[in-house]
Fold this protein.
Amino acid sequence: MLVKRTYTRRQAGALLGAGLAALFLSGAPRAGDAPRTHKIDIQKFKFAPAALTIKAGDSVEWTNHDIAPHTATHEEGSWDTGTLSRGESAAQTFETPGTYSYFCAFHPQMTGTLTVEA
Amino acid sequence: MINKKTCAAALVAFAFSMPAVAEEPMNDLEIAHTAYTAGQIDIRYAHLALALSQNDDVRAFAATMVRDHTAVNDAAGALITELNVTPQDNGLSQALVKGAGEKVEELTGLRGKAFDCAYATNELGYHQVVNQTVEGKFIPNTTVEPLKELLTDALATFKQHEKHAENMVSSLKCS
């Protein structure tokens, strides 16, 4: 059963204030904690930066600037950007803390590491 | 005794040091033609390796050669279209094609480790000489800036191939 409530302007203002206060006191996400997207450039057969530390929930976007196609491929095979031709980008979101080593599947000497913190 | 690696390098080195080429610097259109031709030749070698080799590392290298040289030549094709020019055939391009034909004929008759080693040593020698030529002659003699940039980017790719070929020769234990 639906109950329709009517509030006076003062009651509505009080409710709004209480709601906002509850929101801040409950530890709800603030702008500074919002997930971020970090950028890694692939250039001259290197990942730059080669090592990156991010927070769980953040994303990483790789962009290939080389003529040669590249990938960013997890060593254990749980994620892969697929083939990135020059100028192309691909992003991956990391929810689980840990250390992720990756490489280019076409040029295995190209390696990088991501550290995901809780 | 001259080994196979020396022979492969000597064949390509001979083409790149032909008197007609050495005496007169190539122009931009000739450089573009030869650079494109050299890429096509390596793609041809790679397709042969993909058809004949059973070695996973050799096949992976060959697939990379097809992918990377195709990307470089596609970029060259786009630049040629943009500049509305026609690359110019020349003695060096013709010598490279002739030498490649002979090398393909030789490789086609080989199987197993003999093929893998011949392909790998040829790739190492080929990239060594091509890289020296691109770095020492083509880039300094190129006057069109976009072509110079393309050759510089391509050289970075070819140097990776040279290292990769060196590792492949070493891991195959060919000598």
Q: What stands out?
A: Residues 1-9 of chain B have pLDDT under 50 and may be disordered. Chain B touches chain A through 15 residues (CB under 8 Å). Chain B is about 85% helix and 0% strand. The CA atoms of residues 15 and 96 of chain B lie 6 Å apart.
